[in-house]
Recover the amino acids of this structure.
């Protein structure tokens, strides 16, 4: 292997830049050239390639977003588009590709690998929803952003005796909601993986009010239902006015936490090692604090599971 490429795809995540930097630096350490592909799979198809030397990734470790930009490019499911992408890669003398993204991006990487072009996946998504790794790059930063926002909401909620619903990101996964709820001491946490009863939320609100609690915070993952919809349901049921805050894309931005930067460094380096060993079709991740690699397919064919013990704990700590 003489030259590899790297791209970022799907929703951006803080720490993607640190991962790009790790890929570039580790490759250069082994005297391998690196090409950056801009705009994810769209750029792979349109040939938006630029060489990345050591200096090109200087000063990005602390920056949110991705210097390679990202895109959602549904056309990449089509075979002719994938064939063209491989042709573009081969024309540049590139022998391997590192894809930093989520489960959707992994499907694209596997499609190319099955067509004979080796790809390795690095989990870059705030949702923490990739099976096979305990943490994804960006999750820790998004979690800290959400907790900081909720701490602020709690100040005003307490001053005015308000009940707040805070909608956090997580299309199919409840990790952001669950961890945020635990870290911010929310009364109720709703995640897509667990059924819930409106009556249970109402009972919690009533119990809190009865013991003189001045505020209530309910965290809902966007994949459960929109926060405003839940607010309407609860207002109708309780007669109490409910404020709703949707944290939205602010959760995807900002400087990556130290934890995300270190994770990005470890996983980026491992991805390059795998390509150097000629191993395509692999995903990298963290298991029991150690860097691991596993079949890319496992990452999207299995379903992400929320940690039920954390869900139970969140209920036990907010009776
Ligand atoms: N089944 C698939 N086959 C090939 N490429 C795919 C497939 N699913 C997704 N992709 C590519 O990966 C991109 C990112 O996927 P998406 O699900 O939006 O985000 P994420 O990778 O963060 O989960 C898509 O826009 C598309 O270009
Ligand atoms: O801005 P978009 O493209 O609608 O993306 C929103 C989605 O992106 C995410 O932040 C991350 O999802 P992916 O990692 O699958 O891209 C989800 O939590 C959210 O539903
Ligand atoms: Mg995804």
């Amino acid at each position: 292997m003489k030259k590899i490429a790297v791209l970022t795809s799907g929703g951006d995540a803080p720490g993607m830049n640190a991962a790009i930097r790790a890929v570039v630096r580790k490759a250069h350490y082994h005297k391998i050239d690196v090409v950056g592909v801009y705009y994810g799979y769209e750029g792979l198809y349109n040939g938006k390639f630029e060489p990345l030397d050591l200096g090109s990734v200087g000063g990005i470790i602390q920056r949110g977003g991705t210097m390679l930009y990202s895109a959602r490019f549904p056309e990449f499911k089509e075979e002719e588009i994938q064939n063209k992408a491989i042709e573009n890669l081969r024309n540049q003398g590139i022998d391997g590709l590192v894809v930093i993204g989520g489960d959707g991006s992994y499907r694209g990487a596997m499609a190319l690998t099955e067509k004979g072009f080796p790809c390795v996946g690095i989990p870059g998504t705030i949702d923490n929803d990739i099976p096979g790794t305990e943490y994804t790059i960006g999750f820790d930063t998004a979690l800290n952003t959400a907790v900081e926002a909720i701490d602020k909401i709690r100040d005003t909620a307490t001053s005015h005796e308000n009940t707040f619903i805070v909608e956090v990101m997580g299309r199919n996964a409840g990790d952001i909601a669950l961890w945020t709820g635990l870290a911010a001491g929310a009364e109720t946490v709703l995640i897509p993986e667990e059924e819930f009863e409106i009556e249970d939320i109402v009972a919690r609100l009533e119990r809190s009010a009865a013991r003189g609690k001045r505020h209530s915070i309910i965290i809902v993952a966007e994949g459960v239902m929109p926060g405003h919809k839940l607010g309407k349901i609860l207002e109708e049921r309780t007669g109490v006015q409910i404020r709703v805050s949707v944290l939205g894309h602010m959760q995807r931005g900002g400087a990556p936490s130290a934890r995300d930067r270190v994770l990005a460094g470890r996983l980026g380096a491992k991805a390059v090692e795998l390509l150097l060993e000629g191993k395509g079709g692999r995903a990298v991740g963290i298991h029991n604090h150690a860097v691991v690699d596993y079949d890319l397919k496992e990452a999207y064919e299995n379903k992400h599971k929320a940690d039920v013990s954390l869900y139970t704990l969140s209920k036990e700590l907010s009776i």
About this structure: The domain at 3-138+256-301 is CATH 3.40.50.450 (Rossmann fold). The longest helix spans residues 139-160. The chain is about 45% helix and 20% strand.
